[in-house]
Structure formats: structure tokens, C-alpha cells
Design goal:
alpha/beta; Nucleotidyltransferase, domain 5; 6-stranded mixed beta sheet; two-stranded antiparallel ribbon
């Protein structure tokens, strides 16, 4: 048994929200069928180039809506789990060490992988090992920082709760990939981009001197709304709020829920009211 987790990151620093990380988890037994289903749909829609949030336009809007509808169908069926993490700029962290500031990107990514999917709840009575494959969209780090980051991820399996859950990671399964070759990652990128777009009010932007918003901005807002409607159609997500952590009734929801948001809040912080919307 293996879980494959695709990970990506988006806006480092936004107007109101920053540090966007996204993940898509699939089980190895479903992997080939999911890829085949998504690839066939992309080909049917003539989406032969990489599917990306930045490529959304008026001409491609309907095609992207169709792709997202299919992607969320797979999410509803429990074939894909999606997790999105971000921080709110108004919550200003206190007492950050130099290491925290220099390695914030990696440290937040580590927290995302460790906690976002609720991996420790994947099986109530695990008898056999389950392996994790972690595919990261190309990391924007130098070689040394890349290796250090991968070593931290590899070390996750030594955490007592993950060890009790019989989750194992092979070093060679921590891999950087090109999203161009991974359609599951591409579709997740669209969701991640949509959330960053809306939370940072980019749907309101106009080019300098323009009276009205551009066609591309309008198309992106329409796609965001379509994605939001798909999220709200999921069980127990009718009142879903994109700007807060998804609520839980039971801690096992961290694993069971097909889609969740996590607003990462520092352990110590002060509020800067000027950074609220």
C-alpha cells in the first residue's frame, strides 16, 4: 500500500494572505485510473499544454470548468484528497529566530506535509506498513537547502505518531517533479491559484488607467466561483469559508475529509489591523 502526495506552493507574499501550499493525495491502487481519466478529458478538451491557473482566460474558461468538475468528481468519490494551507498577514509572528526567518519556506512546507492530511489517522489498526511517495513541484531552493529539506521530510517517519501509524518513507521516494508531466498536480495548482487569487482580492484588480477589469481577471473569478461551488457540494461543506481552517467534529476528519483548508497560525503573534481587508 502506498499513498502518493503531490505538493506545490504558490504566492510567497500576498496582499492579505501568504505562504500558500497545496497537496493532492491519491492511493497507488487508484493512481493509474485517475491519471487516465484526467488525461483523456484534457485531450478531449484539446488541453495538450500544461493546465495552470495562470493560463486561465476567457477562451479557456469553459474547458477549465469541465476539468475542475471532473477533478472534484474524483474528490467526491474519495479518489483524491486535497489540502490547502496559507497564512494571514494580519497575524504577525513574534520571536522568530534567524533560522526561522532564513528557512521559513522549508519549515512551513514541513509542517504542511506533517499535519495537513491527518496521516496519523489513516488507519485505526494498521498491521502492515504503508509507504508515502512525496512528489514536490520543482523546489526554488539551492542544492544544499534542497537536500536539507528532503532529509527533514525523510525524518518524518521517526515521529512517534507516524511510526505508530506504520507510515514509512523511502528516501528515493522524495522527488522533485515537473508539473508538466503530472496532471493530478496541474489540477491541484488551479485550485491553489484560485484560493490565492480570491483571498488576496485579485478579482478586483484593474490595469492602470482602466475603468473596467480585464477579461482574464473576470474569467478567473468565474472559475474561482465554479471551484467554490464544487467545494460546497461536498458533504458537510455547505457553509465552507475559504479564509479559515476547515472545522472538525472529530480529529479523524483531518484524514477523512476529501477537502480541507488550514490557516496556519504562529504559536506567538500580534495582530496588525492594517493588514486586514
Amino acid at each position: 500500500m502506498e499513498y502518493i502526495i503531490y505538493c506545490d506552493e504558490s504566492v510567497g507574499r500576498g496582499k492579505y494572505y501568504s505562504n500558500f501550499y497545496g497537496g493532492a493525495l491519491v492511493c497507488n491502487k487508484d493512481f493509474e485510473k485517475i491519471v487516465k481519466t484526467l488525461t483523456e478529458k484534457a485531450e478531449e478538451l484539446n488541453l495538450f499544454k500544461e493546465i495552470k491557473w495562470n493560463k486561465v482566460s476567457e477562451n479557456y474558461l469553459d474547458k477549465y470548468k469541465e476539468m475542475m468538475s471532473l477533478y472534484f468528481k474524483l474528490i467526491k468519490e474519495g479518489k483524491i484528497k486535497i489540502r490547502i494551507m496559507f497564512s494571514q498577514n494580519a497575524e504577525v509572528p513574534l520571536n522568530l529566530s534567524k533560522n526561522n526567518m532564513d528557512n521559513g519556506y522549508q519549515l512551513l512546507y514541513y509542517q504542511f506535509v506533517k499535519h495537513a492530511f491527518g496521516l496519523i489517522y489513516h488507519n485505526e489498526n494498521p498491521k502492515n506498513k504503508t509507504f508515502l511517495r512525496l512528489y514536490f513541484d520543482t523546489l526554488p531552493l539551492n542544492k544544499l537547502k534542497n537536500e536539507n529539506f528532503k532529509n527533514y521530510i525523510y525524518g518524518l517517519q521517526a515521529q512517534p505518531k507516524l511510526r505508530s501509524a506504520k507510515l514509512k518513507i523511502r528516501y528515493e521516494d522524495i522527488t522533485e517533479v515537473r508539473s508538466h508531466n503530472h496532471i493530478i498536480l496541474q489540477c491541484m495548482d488551479v485550485i491553489l491559484g484560485a484560493m490565492s487569487f480570491r483571498l488576496n482580492d485579485l478579482h478586483k484588480e484593474k490595469t492602470e488607467g482602466a475603468k473596467n477589469r480585464g477579461k482574464k481577471t473576470i474569467a478567473k473569478e468565474k472559475l474561482y466561483r465554479h471551484i467554490l461551488s464544487q467545494i460546497k457540494s461536498l458533504d458537510n461543506h455547505k457553509n465552507f469559508n475559504i479564509g479559515v481552517s476547515t472545522g472538525i467534529i472529530d480529529k479523524k476528519d483531518l484524514w477523512k475529509n476529501p477537502y480541507r483548508h488550514w490557516k496556519f497560525t504562529p504559536a506567538e503573534f500580534v495582530i496588525n489591523k492594517t493588514k486586514y481587508k
